[in-house]
């Protein structure tokens, strides 16, 4: 029987790329996203390439408990099992602390942290019930290890994700389920990074066109993080080869963060 992965936030950008890469690696995949049309589109594209039944698209609001419980139920009904959970849903809002809206802070915590908690909880229940020594992998950020100027909500939520990952790893170790976070550098071409260019230009006092190079210059290996860098590391931590690794926060930052 094929192994099954669920990617929450799989409807676009990094999540979409990971869905395709995970299928190429031999899994069936549940593509789950707040944007249900995108989830279905990604699933349809995968099925066109790999055959019907390889992927299923689902709408979910990861911040809403009922919606996540429903997702876990629907995934079990359609795909029968879950071996790998990837929590890629995220949101970034940027402003200096003196202007940072409470609603944006709460939204950052809801999507980046509470959603991870709810998805890990519901899919861990499924793994435990099915006696599957599965994998839970959170897509985090270097902002989960070092503070990030004008990104207080995002950074606070991503730091929280590290504590949650370590705690989940302890809770689930007896079941052979491993839990790890991937701490990414900036995905410079992503809509999320590009959407922050105006604020970053303001913060740095430079033109928007200069921002990307400034971020590249911060990286010892002198390039931004690529989706493929993330997929490479994710497939390792999803594999049996990483069965002795849990509770880790793994840097994928080109050397920008080293602890
Ligand atoms: N873009 C970067 O530079 C960067 C850097 C480091 C880490 N990351 C992390 O990588 C992950 C993916 O980032 P991205 O650039 O692909 O972002 P993105 O905004 O392009 O994609 C995020 C996806 O999450 C979905 N989503 C948002 N709220 C949701 C919710 N409540 N329920 C379900 N789905 C929801 C969105 O619809 C979207 O499809 C995020 O966790 C982000 O924090 C991104």
Considering the chains and any ligands shown, give keywords for the structure.
single chain; 259 residues; alpha/beta; 7-stranded parallel β-sheet; binds nicotinamide-adenine-dinucleotide
User: Can you tell me the residue ranges where pLDDT is under 50 for at least 5 consecutive residues?
Assistant: none
Spatial sequence of strands, sheet with the most strands: 3-2-1-4-5-6-7
Number of helices: 9
Outline, from the CA principal axes? Answer: globular
Bound molecules: nicotinamide-adenine-dinucleotide
Q: From the alpha-carbon coordinates, what is the Rg to the nearest angstrom?
A: 18 Å
Percentage of residues in helical conformation: 40-55%
Beta-strand portion reads: 5-15%
Q: How can the largest sheet be summarized? A: 7 strands, parallel
Instruction: Give me the count of strands.
Output: 7
- Please write the string of helix (H) and strand (E) elements: EHEHEHEHEHEHHHHE
The first-to-last residue Cα distance is 39 Å
């Amino acid at each position: 029987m094929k192994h099954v992965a669920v990617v929450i936030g799989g409807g676009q950008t990094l999540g979409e790329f990971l869905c395709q890469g995970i299928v190429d690696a031999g899994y069936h995949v549940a593509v789950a996203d707040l944007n249900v049309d995108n989830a279905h589109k990604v699933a349809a594209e995968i099925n066109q390439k790999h055959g019907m039944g390889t992927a299923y698209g689902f709408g979910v609001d990861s911040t809403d408990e009922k919606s996540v419980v429903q997702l876990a139920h629907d995934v079990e009904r359609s795909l029968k099992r879950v071996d790998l959970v990837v929590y890629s849903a995220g949101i970034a809002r940027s402003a200096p602390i003196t202007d940072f809206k409470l609603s944006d802070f709460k939204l950052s915590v809801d999507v980046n942290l509470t959603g991870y908690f709810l998805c890990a909880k519901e899919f861990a229940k499924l793994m435990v019930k099915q006696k599957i020594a599965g994998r839970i992998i959170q897509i985090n950020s270097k902002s989960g290890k070092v503070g990030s100027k004008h990104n207080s909500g995002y950074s606070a939520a991503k730091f929280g994700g590290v504590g949650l990952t370590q705690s989940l790893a302890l809770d689930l170790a007896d079941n052979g389920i491993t839990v790890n976070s991937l701490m990414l550098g900036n995905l410079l071409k992503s809509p999320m990074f590009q959407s922050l260019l105006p604020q970053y230009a303001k913060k740095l006092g430079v033109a928007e066109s200069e921002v990307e190079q400034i971020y590249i210059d911060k990286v010892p290996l002198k390039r931004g993080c690529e989706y493929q860098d993330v997929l490479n590391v994710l497939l390792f931590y999803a594999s049996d080869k990483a069965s002795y690794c849990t509770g880790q926060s793994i840097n994928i930052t080109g050397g920008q963060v080293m602890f």
